[in-house]
Amino acid sequence: MKVGDLVRYHWPSFLGCLGNTVDDKGIGIILEEPKVWVDSGAPDRNFGTLVVVKWPDGSIVTCEEDELVIVNENR
User: Fold this and answer.
1) Which of 23, 1, 26 is nearest to 11 (CA)?
2) What is the pLDDT of residues 52-62, one digit of tens each?
3) Over the stretch 24-69, which tens digit does the pLDDT of each residue have?
4) What distance in Å separates the CA atoms of residue 49 and residue 62, rounded to the nearest whole number?
5) Domain boundaries, the chain
6) Cα separation values, 54 from 49, 51, 60, 62, 75, Å
7) CA atoms of 62 and 16, how far apart (whole Å)
8) Among residues 17, 32, 34, 36, which is most buried (max CB within 10 A)?
């Protein structure tokens, strides 16, 4: 994922049943380069990538990479 990619929110299945009530935010656009984070106390199992997305309602939200699906990559 990179700046300019269009994405849709998708609740990760490993987080459980809330996936049945996914909040459809529409199509968003990635505003910043994704940032990798690592938990210094458990670097081998607690890490991820944060992505800043602007949604159609104007909100700007930081999501985990695994909560997003690329709709159209900006190439």
Assistant:
1) 23
2) 999 999 999 99
3) 778 999 999 999 999 888 878 788 899 999 999 999 999 999 889 9
4) 10
5) 6-72
6) 17, 10, 4, 9, 19
7) 20
8) 34
